[in-house]
Structure formats: C-alpha cells, structure tokens
Request: fold
Amino acid sequence: MSELDRAAAAPKKPNKIAMRRKARSLAVQALYSWQMAGQPLNEIEAQFRVDNDFSDVDGAYFQEILHGVPRLKSELDAAFSSCLDRPIEEIDPVELAILRLSTYELRNRIDVPYKVVINEGIELAKVFGATDGHKFVNGVLDKLAPRLRSAEVRSKRS
Reply:
C-alpha cells in the first residue's frame, strides 16, 4: 500500500470547526436539561459524556459552555433581555438555552467571530427549536452583537 493509499484509508480527524459545532449542539441540549430539571451540572455533564461519543467533540468547549452559562445566567439574561419582544419567561426553553449559549460566546469568546456565533445560534434553533425559532434567535442576536462586539461589527460593516 502506497503512502497516499494509507493516508486516504486512515480515519479522518474532525476539524476544530466541526468539533466545536458538536460541542455546541450537545451543550444546548445539556443546558436545556439543566433549565428544565435543575439537575446538578456535574451530573448532567457525566450523563452526556456517557451517552454520547465525545471522540469528535471539543470536550473542553462543551464543559466551558455547560458550566459558564449557568454561572453567568443573570448577566447573560440581562445582556439580551432588552433585545426581546416578550418577557424572558415566555421564551421557548430551547430558544432560551440557545440565546444563553450564544450570548455567552459573544461576551466571553472573542476568538469566535460574531457572525459565526449568530450563524451557529440560528443553526441550533433550526435543529432543536420551534418552526420559526431560528428567526427569533437571529433577530435577538442581530440586535445583541453590535452591543457586545461593537468594534468587530463596525469593522465588518465599513
């Protein structure tokens, strides 16, 4: 077998983007579980690690989001509440988990471009949210991004 054939036959390691996307997907499900059941985060994390194959997941990113969002819940909710068209209590729980995750990324992960955060939030809402939930998430994040990432948004728009 040639070197090229061996390289083609070797299992491909998922790239960082795909691993982060899977981490977000699992994190939004875990955050939903936390919101609904109020289970301790360590138990939720352990259960998710047992129930899911983490070989192609950015496990550190999953853990950061899962523990970071609840720790900053009040600040995150305050950050996006002025962008809402309804009281926070009336937001679908899935969309609320997505908004919290996305707001966390906008605030705390400046290494992730704001357009990526918005796009990932929309994609999560398309997969897990209600029929038009992605439109709601998009609207909130579009209003929020210039507030939390003003310099980055300005530089992209000029």
